[in-house]
TrEMBL record:
This is Methylamine utilization protein MauE. The lineage of its organism: Bacteria, Pseudomonadati, Bacteroidota, Chitinophagia, Chitinophagales. It is found in: Membrane. Keywords: Membrane, Transmembrane, Transmembrane helix. It comes from the Bacteria. It comes from Chitinophaga japonensis. InterPro entries: Methylamine_util_MauE. The keyword Transmembrane applies.
Length: 145
């Protein structure tokens, strides 16, 4: 059952990160302009616009292979936490930045995007914990032989 759950979680994350990375690459100019409008990110817009979509596609690839899945789940958890944290920062700050999330998933508000990110943060956390439990069970079974 755990293996099936990890497979479903992994599939959801692969779809999410592949979609997100490809959209950002295919509409690179728009993504770059959006980054330039965000507080804290504007000075780093160029490197982020190149690096983030690449990182998302590499992350999706890591999730696909059993040998690298735990690393992929760890990085997915980290990335979703960073995304959610930045949205919380925007919502609680004095910044009036329009949500550009519509390009990716059709959201029109930061609050809707935050809810989506928190759901996928929990998905990534569940996958990470299940994978951790499965690894420990394998280790115990190996020691018992």
């Amino acid at each position: 059952m755990k293996k099936v759950a990890v497979t479903v979680i992994t599939l959801l994350l692969v779809i999410l990160f592949t979609h997100a990375g490809l959209i950002k690459l295919l509409d690179h100019r728009v993504f770059l302009e959006e980054l330039r409008s965000y507080p804290l990110l504007a000075p780093f817009a160029g490197p982020i616009a190149r690096g983030l979509p690449t990182a998302e596609l590499i992350l999706a690839t890591l999730l696909m292979w059993p040998r690298t899945r735990f690393l992929g789940l760890s990085l997915a958890l980290l990335l979703m936490a960073v995304f959610a944290g930045y949205i919380i920062f925007l919502l609680n700050g004095a910044y009036q930045v329009p949500c550009t999330c519509e390009t990716l998933l059709g959201f029109t508000t930061w609050t809707a995007q935050l809810k989506f990110n928190l759901v996928f943060l929990l998905v990534a956390l569940s996958g990470f914990l299940l994978q951790l439990i499965m690894r420990e069970e394998e280790r115990v079974m190996h020691l018992a032989r």
